[in-house]
Amino acid sequence: MNLTAFLVSSKVDFEFLKKRPTRHALEASRASGVTLHEIVKTIVFVDQDSKPMIAVVRADRNVGRHKLEQCSSSKSVRLASNDMAEAVTGYPAGGIPPVGHRNRLPVFLDEEIMSHECVWCGGGARSKLVRLRTEDIVKLSAATVCDIST
What we know:
The chain is α/β, with parallel strands linked by helices. It has helices spanning 3-9, 25-32, 65-72, 82-89, 134-141, and strands at 14-18, 40-47, 52-58, 77-79, 107-110, 118-122, 128-133, 144-146. The longest helix is centred in the first third of the chain and has 8 residues, at 25-32. 26% of the residues lie in helices and 27% in strands. It is globular, with a radius of gyration of 14 Å. The chain is built from 5 helices and 8 strands, in the order αβαββαβαβββαβ. It has a single domain, classed as YbaK/aminoacyl-tRNA synthetase-associated domain (YbaK protein, Alpha-Beta Complex).
């Protein structure tokens, strides 16, 4: 997937930040100098029927599985494998943005994120972050905003 082309064609404001390749938000924060609470992580889960969905939470928080199950009306959810996450989003784990995925997936965005005007997200590669406006994330991903963090 080409995240830059998607963002340009969507006519949204964005900024990329290059950093050394990382796999986890804490590493990304250290490598970029962006504080952990300004970064959001995009995590792929699958439900009881192996249908993928995306959860987006602040990097200093975790996804509450029971909360995600309630919000998504699923009987159960579990983390998707890195291979599946990349197959359905088009991006490697550690670089998955909350928008512009290969397949249209249900996105559940933690309500806490809405208190930020902008957040830093996976930039489509492990070596980049992208700054997006939270309202653009909701609009571009058709996200359901709900309480999913712990």
